[in-house]
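[Q] Does anyone have a clean structure-token version of this?
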Amino acid sequence: MNSLVAEGQLRPINPATLAPVGAVPVTLDVAPFVAGALAAQEEWGRSTFAERRELLDRVSRVLLARKDEIAATITAETGKPIVEAYTTELLLGIEQLAWLARNVEHVLAPERVRHGIPYLAHKRAHVVYEPVGVVGVISPWNFPFAIPLTQTASAAAAGNAVVLKPSELTPLSGALVADVFAAADAPKGLVSVVQGAGETGAALVEAPGVAKLIFTGSAATGRKLAAAAGALLRPITLELGGKDPMLVLHDADLDRAVEGAAWGSFANCGQVCVGIERIYVARDLHARFVDALALRARKLRIGPGDDPDTDLGPLITEQHRSNVEDLVAEALERGAEAVTGARRPDVGLPGWFYEPTVLVGGDPEARIEREEVFGPVVTVQPFDHEAEAVSLANTTSFGLGASVWTRDVRRARVLASRMEAGMVWTNDLGYSYGAGPAPWGGRKESGLGRTHSKHGLYDVSHVKLVDSDRGRVAVPWWYPYDPRALDGFRGVLEVLHGDRKLRALWTHRRGLAHLARRYVRR
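[A] Here you go.
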């Protein structure tokens, strides 16, 4: 582990140097934090959109002022390159804050409901969006700041309070989320952090007063938390693992596809939920693509994340590196070839480094073809026609992201419609995490629900229909029932929805007249 628990503290370790990073106390009881959140939310839930917008703007200013401190903490705990701490954590995070500040009022403003039914023309109704209350956020270690920040900001923008449980591997980065809200003068208790391992997360899931949960992590843990939440009828949004495919069509820009594959497969040392793990290349491009990708992978500079020249840092723990090595070893035993990588590099540091690895061939039933690697390893296989490529892409229990690489954008849209994924990008990948209007989430074993965009705001809101009726119009389907009412409602059905409306009017004229008299009666 790169976070040691000792004397009631979490003590994260830099996975590149194995040096201690700091310490935070383990939370022994989540109940006081939930109680504080409930108290804060009671008032915050009545806040105006202007007040919420102002808070988000202040949080953004705090992020900018403390960007170097935040980036350094992220890199120390995860080992990721410092450039990625700025791009995939700070930049993506602040873009979401900015979008929320600009759009939350428009998204969550009351909406007029137009029934479109003649006998309801006198009614006025609206859909209103109300806060759910206290949202429990359980966040991962691979993006230990951006993910909890954006999920917390969405919840707060919708009028909720948040109790955040960061990964025990990156507690300091998670704690910074509450710190920046506090520094931005958020109400006390609006955003709080509880620290600990799995038992702390389980306690938060079951804590009285928590109205909604958002979990990002593995499918195995997601199932357990969903079962616990389901027993309480407590809604939970799950953003789980992925096994993302990349389709490289025969007309793709080869240079761009290779650069995209290198970044998509090896960024954050491959520890990305929407990282590329499977590449399917048109057969006439396959050999050139493999050679070019292997060459690009060999040129990546491996080292400590705090070196600005580093392209690839370490894996998060020694156990995680062992898991990656086991998957690669089994693939090699079953006939795969490592074109490059598949070993530990010598970088002069004791951390958990692993070379970027490109595999070709092998057994399609190997574990590496089915299980999420979550490391700097990608398989590259040829295909003969697009239907085969789509079939291969969909042959997985996951369905988070996918990408299509082609100069024919129309063709890409057609293939995207056939791919079983929550997000499909063309000639790019993953960028939409920072695009406010874009929803984030998957299908199948990649999760339930959505974060980000208007759908993420709806996800942390109660949707309520509020009807307005002056009570001046009688309701004809109330008591008493009688044969004339029955005849009348037969006529209503046939007149409004049948093909022979005039005949229905004549056949049921007496019953319809009876209903009309009841309708206008006060």
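[Q] Thanks! Anything notable?
[A] The chain has a mean pLDDT of 97.
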